[in-house]
Every structure is written in C-alpha cells, then in structure tokens.
Amino acid sequence: GAVVSQHPSRVICKSGTSVKIECRSLDFQATTMFWYRQFPKQSLMLMATSNEGSKATYEQGVEKDKFLINHASLTLSTLTVTSAHPEDSSFYICSATQGVTYGYTFGSGTRLTVV
Amino acid sequence: GNSVTQMEGPVTLSEEAFLTINCTYTATGYPSLFWYVQYPGEGLQLLLKATKADDKGSNKGFEATYRKETTSFHLEKGSVQVSDSAVYFCALISGANSKLTFGKGITLSVRP
Description:
Helix content of chain A is 0%, strand content 52%. Chain A has strands at 4-7, 10-13, 19-25, 32-38, 44-51, 57-58, 67-73, 76-81, 90-97, 105-106, 110-114. Chain A is globular and about 40 Å long. In chain A, 33% of the residues are buried. By secondary structure, chain B is mainly beta. Chain B is 0% helix and 50% strand. Chain B has no helices and twelve strands. In chain B, strands 2, 5, 6, 10, 11 and 12 form a six-stranded mixed sheet that branches. In chain B, strands 3-9-8-7 form a four-stranded antiparallel sheet, with no helix packed on it. The interface between A and B is medium-sized, with 23 and 19 residues.
C-alpha cells in the first residue's frame, strides 16, 4: 500500500531557530501534498496545499513567510518553520496523494517543541 | 461550504460494548465520506470510506453507511476492543476541491 514517511518524529529547538520537516512518499508519486497542524485534543487544521513544481497554496491566516513549503519533486515535500517561537509548538502532519481517486496517505506526524 | 459535525466526546466504553459515533455533513455536490483513526502519537490512518449514497464502508469490524437522506455517515462496531482506543475523525471531499474537510474528532477509550 501507499506509504508516507515523515521525519523527524520529534524535534526540540530553541526560539529563533528554524526547523525543517520532511514528508516523503515511498512507493508512489505524490502530485499533491498537504500540511496540517494539530493542537492538543483538536482537529487537523489545513495549513497549505503543495503541488510538485509550483508554489504552495496557503490557507487563510497561515503565514507563508513563517511556514515555508517546498515540493521540489514528486516524492518529497518539506515544511520549514522559520524563526520558531514557543507558540509554534504543535503536532504537524503531512499527507500525500496521487489524485483524489487514489485516496490520501498520512505521515506519522512530527511533534515540534520550541523552548 | 463543506462541513462535518461529529458528536461530542470523549466516549468511554467497556470491552465488547457496542459503539456508535455520529457524523453528519454539509456539502455541495456529491461528497465522498471517510473515517480516519489516529492512535496516540501517530498520524491518521484511513479506516473506511464510501463514495456514493447507500454505500457501506467496512474494515476491522467497523462499518458506516452513506445516508444521503439524513446526510449522515455514522460509525458503528458491534464489539469494541481495548485496542480500538484512539481518536476517530469523520471527513469528506466534495467537488473539484481536493481538500479533506475534517470533523473535530472524538476520543474513544475502551476499558478492559
């Protein structure tokens, strides 16, 4: 079946530093990848949609200069949290798809803690 | 716009109890409906889906029927196990927009 690998699973960083999270589709080509943020005991909030080779489309209220998304290939998308602050601490999840009819596969998530 | 409403949680059941988790939706066109499960500290896994009215999705003893007349997609299981303890999300996709719309999720705890 379709597998998406997300790395790292946990990261702790200092305020002001940047953190990069990778999302890889291991056995399929992901034309579209999605990045979500999940707060404790809450649902997933879609942050942005990225299509291979084009700029990401950000949801309203998400700072594109703070959450940099790159989808350079059909198997890799990255989310970089720039100049991280404690309020950026959260669980970030990616998902990937070849197309709606193929379904969506989620990564295992990244727990970011900014201290 | 699209929206998904799930019953309020959390839900705590004893092992072998019957489970129902309600989900209703609002959507333009003819949505596809999904249930996802999230185990502690993990991402989401597709549990089951239905793509048209009256379809029944099933997996691991869980079932849900796409009811267009009541715009519902309630999740059921006849006998829950401790290993079913997780967060369950109802979701939909509708129209040309390929984005999943999620409900708020509900935490299920099953005690031995």
